[in-house]
Amino acid sequence: MEAETLTRAQLAEAIYAAVGLSRNESAALLEAVLEAMSAALEAGDQVKIAAFGTFLVREKGTRIGRNPKTGIEVPISPRRVLSFRPSQALKARLNGEAAPA
Amino acid sequence: MQGMTRSELMAQLAAANPHLRLPDVELIVTTVFDGIANALAEGRRVELRGFGAFSVKRRDPRTGRNPRTGQSVQVTGKVVPHFKPGKELRERVNGGPLQAEAAIKAA
Which of A51, A89, A90, B100 can pair with A76 through a Cys bridge, CB separation 3.0 to 4.6 Å? Predict the structure, then answer.
């Protein structure tokens, strides 16, 4: 039972239905939410959404990688990667449990 | 390092959209995250191109151990949410296109 994927279109439609703005403005506001989060993460800040989870930026140091095809070793430069830690409430919800207080 | 919270996100949206009432801004933010969470609870995938994709991963039941007593306990199977950042966001967070990946491909 491969359920249908949720995309921007349906989320914008949900905003349209809930708030009563135009479809265009609903889509623009969804974009504004994602952009505000992206900008904060780009600045290296974490984004903590209560009852959902935390998006955080982690610094990774230099390490030696390998081209899996040729076996040639190449240094992987230090980088910042994004990770997501789901909240207890979200994990509980996905498992059909009552959300912890 | 400072951070952004749900209320900080709402404050930014409200400031950028002075024609919206605060309860509407709150409803917008709630609708977005509830929408994602609801889809995941139904086992659906959420794809927001450029930002990232949320999916659920199944964890099989296993025999775990209480690290303090060493006693084995049955851990039931469960599903956990997972987020994979999109290419665009990944590159923005890292301050540009990933140079190391390019280096590996070039080698």
Answer: B100
